[in-house]
């Protein structure tokens, strides 16, 4: 895929067991081009099979997190309608795939949000396991304001996180939600003063990176499974996950630490 070097990129770096992903197109509020979405998919796919990773951190460059998919870059023309069926063919392998990977990867995913989290950018933050936002940040689902229906998981994520009434306010009325309200509603993990955001996120990343990675990943999988399962089905899934987690070195370390009355030193194995 061709790429204009000035049109943004998704940068990645390693910090021990932390994979840091930065959406870097600050001049356009970090809106995502098709090229950038492809980069996200590649990075998350590779991370899913990297046993040295313990946690993933996603942030935006500059003053905003992400203002969603760049429809001008996606469609190339403001005047020409997409070919019939084009979105049905393409979106599942682009924007939707990013949300699926964040939601299903058996690593904890943390987003830190400043400024705007809009559309796909909002849903990316909501699909993460923990989103910490500056208290002056804004979450917005502007789909109907633009004349089209929601995508990238909005209709699945919002009702489960905040209930139908509030989901309708965001999706049908296009209400913008401040980070403080988002935290009160349970839409995100936490809202903090802007100067405290980086330190708060780093403390959370350190805690997750020092945890029993396999057990955390299996717990995440079980939570997600339970959203569409019965109690009996969920407990059966828990048993299979328990069987797996009890075979890890971190399980043995956790028991040893408990017996010796000390803090565990998990290695993610």
Quick summary of this structure?
The protein has 12 helices and 9 strands. The protein is α/β, with parallel strands linked by helices. The strands form 2 sheets. A 6-stranded mixed β-sheet has the order 1-2-3-4-6-9, sandwiched between helices. The chain has a 3-stranded mixed β-sheet with strand order 5-7-8.
Report the radius of gyration as a whole number of Å.
19 Å
- The counted number of beta strands is 9
The main sheet comes to:
6 strands, mixed
As residue ranges, the low-confidence spans are none
Approximate helicity band = 40-55%
Mean pLDDT: 91
Quickly count the helices. 12
Strand order in the sheet with the most strands: 1-2-3-4-6-9
Q: What percentage of amino acids are in beta strands?
A: 15-25%
Topology:
Elements: E1 9-15, E2 18-24, H1 34-48, E3 55-60, H2 71-75, H3 86-90, H4 95-104, E4 109-113, E5 116-118, H5 120-127, E6 130-134, E7 138-140, H6 154-162, H7 164-171, E8 177-178, H8 179-185, E9 190-192, H9 197-209, H10 213-226, H11 231-245, H12 249-259
Parallel strand pairs: 2-3, 3-4, 4-6, 5-7, 6-9
Antiparallel strand pairs: 1-2, 7-8
Helix pairs in contact: 1-4, 4-5, 5-6, 6-7, 10-11
Describe the structure.
With 269 residues, the protein is α/β, with parallel strands linked by helices. It contains 12 helices and 9 strands. It has helices at 34-48, 71-75, 86-90, 95-104, 120-127, 154-162, 164-171, 179-185, 197-209, 213-226, 231-245, 249-259, and strands at residues 9-15, 18-24, 55-60, 109-113, 116-118, 130-134, 138-140, 177-178, 190-192. The strands form 2 sheets. A 6-stranded mixed sheet has the order 1-2-3-4-6-9, with helices on both faces. The chain has a 3-stranded mixed sheet with strand order 5-7-8. Helix 5 crosses helix 6. The longest helix is centred in the N-terminal third of the chain and has 15 residues, at 34-48. It is globular. The mean pLDDT is 91. This is Enoyl-CoA hydratase. Belongs to the enoyl-CoA hydratase/isomerase family. InterPro entries: ClpP/crotonase-like_dom_sf, Enoyl-CoA_hydra/iso, Enoyl-CoA_hydra_C. Pfam families: ECH_1.
């Amino acid at each position: 895929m061709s790429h204009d070097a000035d049109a943004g990129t998704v940068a990645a770096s390693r910090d021990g067991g932390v994979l840091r992903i930065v959406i870097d197109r600050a001049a356009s509020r970090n809106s995502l081009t098709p090229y950038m979405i492809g980069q996200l998919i590649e990075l998350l796919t590779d991370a899913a099979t990297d046993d040295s990773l313990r946690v993933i951190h996603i942030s935006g460059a500059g003053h905003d997190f992400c203002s969603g998919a760049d429809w001008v870059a996606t469609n190339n023309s403001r005047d020409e309608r997409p070919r019939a069926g084009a979105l049905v063919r393409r979106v599942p392998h682009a924007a939707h795939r990013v949300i699926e990977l964040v939601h299903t990867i058996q690593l904890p995913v943390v987003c830190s949000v400043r400024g705007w989290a809009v559309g796909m950018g909002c849903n990316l933050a909501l699909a993460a396991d923990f989103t910490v936002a500056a208290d002056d940040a804004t979450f917005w689902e502007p789909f109907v304001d633009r004349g089209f229906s929601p995508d990238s998981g909005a209709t699945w994520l919002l009702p489960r996180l905040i209930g139908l009434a509030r989901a309708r306010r965001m999706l049908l009325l296009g209400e913008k939600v401040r980070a403080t309200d988002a935290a009160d509603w349970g839409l995100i993990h936490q809202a903090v003063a802007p100067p405290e955001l980086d330190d708060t996120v780093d403390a959370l990343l350190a805690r997750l990176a020092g945890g029993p990675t396999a057990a955390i990943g299996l717990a995440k999988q079980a939570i997600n499974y339970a959203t569409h399962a019965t109690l009996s089905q969920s407990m059966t899934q828990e048993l299979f996950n328990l069987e797996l987690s009890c075979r890890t070195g971190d399980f043995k370390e956790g028991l040893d630490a408990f017996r010796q009355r000390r803090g565990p030193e998990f290695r993610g194995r």
